Amino acid sequence: MEQRQATILVSLSGLDETIMQPLHARQVYAAQDLRWNHRFVDMIYNTAGGDRYLDYRYFNAVEPVPHSGRTESL
Questions:
Q1: How far apart are CA 20 and CA 41, in angstroms?
Q2: pLDDT per residue as tens digits for the range 9-68
């Protein structure tokens, strides 16, 4: 990807149900921005009372994907 200067374009649309307004986000990622074998940290949590909340401290956080010990060949 780096040799070809490839990029990935992500476009998201949604609805803010609090104010009933559409939301749009767009981000372009270059090859050097990608983190292989990583995933986004879960930022949705449940309270003891059953409510859900978002912890925005983890909005851009990633963590390594646990190794399964399995090897696959293409």
A1: 27
A2: 999 999 998 899 999 999 999 999 989 899 999 999 999 999 999 998 998 899 999 886
Judge if 1 and 24 occupy the same domain.
yes
Same domain as 39, residue 29: no
Nearest to 15 by CA among 7, 6, 25: 25
Question: How far, rounded to the nearest angstrom, does the alpha carbon of residue 73 sit from its chain's CA centroid?
Answer: 26
59 dihedral zone (left: phi>0; alpha: psi -120 to 50; beta): alpha
* Whether residue 26 sits in one domain with residue 12: yes
Q: What predicted TM-score, i.e. pTM, was given to this entire model?
A: 0.57
Please choose, from the candidates 11, 10, 6, 7, the residue with its C-alpha nearest in 3D space to the C-alpha of residue 22: 11
DSSP 42: P
Instruction: Indicate if 54 and 26 belong to the same structural domain.
Output: no
